[in-house]
Amino acid sequence: MTDQLSSDALGAVSLTPVVGGAFPDGLLQLDYRSPVDGLADWAMLLPPQAGSTWLVCIHGHGARGNQLYVRNDIRKAWLPSFLQRGYGLLTPTLRGNAWMCPPAVADMDALIGYLRREWGATRFIFASGSMGGSSNLMYASLRPANVQAVAAMGAIADLAAYHGFCRQGASRLPILGEIADSLEEHYGGTPAAQPELYRRHSPLYHCEALLGMPLFLAHGTADVLMPVAQSRRLAGALAEHGHFWYHEIAGGGHDAPLHLDPCEFIADKMMNA
Question: Residue 247 CB: number of other CB atoms within 10 A?
């Protein structure tokens, strides 16, 4: 398995208006088939009010591409700020709990290509939490040319180490076992079986790719799902980064960073980076 997969155009694209009290006016559901294997998948997109900047918000483990709109705490903390700035919004399902595996990277490439061709997109801010924040970091380290800024809240940066953490903690928290299973499913085995692939998708070992973009990390020190040590290691490796901000929430759990506005740290500083 490799991340050098097809990044051709999306297949069987269709757009459908999304209606309902939780959804902003103009929201569309984009249904498509992956250029990698024809997998049917979907994303939601809201065209920008002005300009050509899009914000990509990837969901957490167990959620889907509508999480920004249907999970109340994230909706209240993030959506008003995103809408106020007038960005286009892309919230992909991206193969579900895929943890930015190689096919998910190729699908993200194709989604960005679609937004460039069909909607005139020129810049992409990635702002997400949990698995989504981890996916932001992975994609930015693999495709830095496609990412102009990143906010990652409660994320991980070393896949192999995190897989071990999940296996060790599965008896305490069953969701950790589910995450380890998902990693093995989407990465073709354990880190012992696929060491190069796990390392290639671990941003901790590719910090040089992140140096050209504003980057914000936030983590709760009492996070039992994704240990703060992951963000601390990445923050240490990025100590010489010129536009990097790291914020810890003392005693905060896994969801604590989700109450921060990522635009406050990233979007408003991007123009001066």
Answer: 14
- H/E stretch holding 117 reads helix 102-119
Q: Could you tell me which of 264, 256, 260, 201 has the C-alpha nearest to residue 226?
A: 256
What are the tens digits of pLDDT across the range 74-86? 999 999 999 999 9
CA distances 263 to 98, 227, 243, 267, Å, are 25, 24, 14, 5
Nearest-angstrom CA–CA distance, 268 and 262: 9
pLDDT in tens, 14-42: 999 999 988 999 999 999 999 999 999 99
Q: Tokens 């061709």: give the residue.
A: 117
DSSP states along 198-232:
HHHT-GGG-GGGGTTS-EEEEEETT-SSS-HHHHH
* Cβ neighbours of residue 268 closer than 8 Å, sequence gap 6 or more: none
Q: How confident is the model over 50-55, as a mean pLDDT?
A: 94
Give the Å distances, CA to CA, from 146 to 16, 159, 264. Answer: 26, 22, 21
Residues 6 or more apart from 124 whose CB is under 8 A from it?
Answer: 53, 54, 55, 56, 112, 115, 146, 147, 148
DSSP, res 256: G
Query: Tens digit of pLDDT for each residue in 136-171?
Result: 999 999 999 999 999 999 999 999 999 999 999 999
Q: Look at residue 196 and give its three-state secondary structure.
A: helix
User: What CATH fold (topology level) applies to the domain 11-270?
Assistant: Rossmann fold (3.40.50)
- List the chain domain ranges: 11-270
